[in-house]
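User: Design a sequence. Structure:
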């Protein structure tokens, strides 16, 4: 009986520290009491994009965020009708300019619809959970 108890104590002595490392290695969530400075992603997501002459050239379909949490690119859906025949084109975050117009966000891009249509398209690969070049 003493051998079973001793073996159990030894086994628990080696398992408990391993379990503590697995569960104790993550810092607790940081809960904020006020909203941080910055813009909400809703100002961009699913918003229309216009060229400098105020013509709609597409809409933001997705937003790419790097591992550091910074927005690096927008995927703009261009062409097609009601989503059919549309393709997604990546543009750099700093290429899209956001301003308030008539009480809502207004996004502009210094290019044309034709330039976006002729740009390389991307498609979302669910298995890779990433945007990849579209098949031609």
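Assistant: Done.
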């Amino acid at each position: 009986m003493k051998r079973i108890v001793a073996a159990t104590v030894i086994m628990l002595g080696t398992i408990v520290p391993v379990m503590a490392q697995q569960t104790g290695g993550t810092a607790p969530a940081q809960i904020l009491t006020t909203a941080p400075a910055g813009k909400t992603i809703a100002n961009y997501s699913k918003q229309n994009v216009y060229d400098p002459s105020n013509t709609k050239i597409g809409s933001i379909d997705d937003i790419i965020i790097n591992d550091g949490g910074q927005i690096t690119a927008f995927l703009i859906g261009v062409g097609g009708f009601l989503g059919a025949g549309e393709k997604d084109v990546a543009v750099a975050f700093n290429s899209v300019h956001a301003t308030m117009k008539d009480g809502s966000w207004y996004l502009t891009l210094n290019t044309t619809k034709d330039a976006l249509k002729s740009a390389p398209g991307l498609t979302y690969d669910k298995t890779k959970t990433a945007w990849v070049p579209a098949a031609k």
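Helices lie at 2-24, 113-118. DSSP finds two helices and eight strands in the chain.
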